[in-house]
Design brief:
The protein is of the alpha/beta class. The chain is built from 13 helices and nine strands. The strands form two sheets. Strands 3-2-1-4-5-6 form a six-stranded parallel beta sheet, sandwiched between helices. A three-stranded mixed beta sheet has the order 7-8-9.
């Protein structure tokens, strides 16, 4: 079986590495030549969209947002003209569910199947192959792809028809964003009250407030480590999609809107390329303290 993979960014590159390690032949394409060379060094086969569309049995895309996914698949120089009946496209990008459904309709006209399968876990879990896949599509298509997904992840759950995967991802991103903001507020409170944020983290992480988000992001906030596992600008994109979806279905999301404003402030103050845990800097700006460290 040949697998095609388009999009070799922070997430796509380690995902491809895990597919190669599992023994699959993986044809890859990316706009950046450097990313292609790095993938080739890891055993992937540099290709173009035409070759991937014609030869791959299952095609993966891992791209920034809806416009990029639509361009790569449906654009004039896209995959669709080269694809054929019976192939499966698995879009792992985090995009608007409406866009997923639009792409699925275009593919189905040629007898091509689709899953939307966004992931959670960020770069660390992409590297160690323990991502969580939230999948939308038909059961029989999911069953054909599940073992491949589990080469890159620890779980893959079918959540409904196409679009359900990205709806689930939007819910995930709301929860993660609100957790990060709450964590930043809590550690700021501790610091302002004269209590060591590291000790607060150690004391509460095993209780009800403990979470995967806290375990991953509290040490980064305390150390001032802003190296992106997931960039603020990408989270802004996801929350924009969440707000659009919520408005279209009439779901109230006031907490999402609030944390989106904090992230937008970070973007406007040169923080968009930092890890989303860096929203702690928003509180540091307001309070003139630095969580866990002496302000320089």
């Amino acid at each position: 079986m040949k697998i095609g993979f388009i999009g070799l960014g922070i997430m796509g590159k380690p995902m491809v590495r895990n597919l190669v390690s599992a023994g699959y032949e993986v044809l890859v394409w990316n706009r950046s030549q450097k990313a292609l060379e790095e993938a080739a060094a890891g055993g992937a086969v540099p290709s173009d969209k035409k070759q991937i569309g014609e030869e791959a049995d299952i095609l993966f895309t891992m791209l920034p947002n809806s416009p990029q996914v639509k361009e790569v698949i449906l654009g004039a120089d896209g995959l669709l003209p080269h694809m054929h009946e019976g192939q499966i496209l698995v879009d792992c990008s985090s995009i608007n569910p409406v866009a997923s459904q639009e792409i699925c309709r275009a593919l189905s006209e040629k007898g091509i199947h689709m899953l939307d399968a966004p992931v959670s876990g960020g770069e660390p879990k992409a590297i160690d192959g323990t991502l969580s896949f939230m999948v939308g599509g038909r059961q029989e298509i999911f069953d054909k792809c599940k073992d491949i997904l589990l080469c890159m992840g620890a779980s893959a759950v079918l959540c409904g028809d196409v679009g359900a995967g990205n709806t689930t991802k939007l819910a995930n991103q709301i929860i993660v964003a609100c957790n990060i903001q709450a964590l930043a507020e809590a550690l700021t409170l501790a610091q302002k009250a004269g209590v060591d944020p590291e000790l607060v983290f150690q004391a509460i992480k095993g209780g009800l407030a403990g979470s995967t988000v806290m375990n991953a992001k509290a040490p980064m906030m305390i150390a001032g480590d802003n190296k992106p596992g997931f960039k603020i600008d990408l989270h802004i994109k996801d929350l924009n999609n969440a707000l659009d979806c919520a408005h279209s279905v009439g779901a109230p999301v006031p907490m999402t809107a609030a944390v989106q404003e904090v992230m937008q402030w970070m973007h406007s103050h040169d923080g968009g390329q930092k890890d989303h845990s860096a929203i702690a800097e928003y509180y540091e700006h307001l309070t003139d303290i630095t969580i866990g460290r002496t302000k320089e």
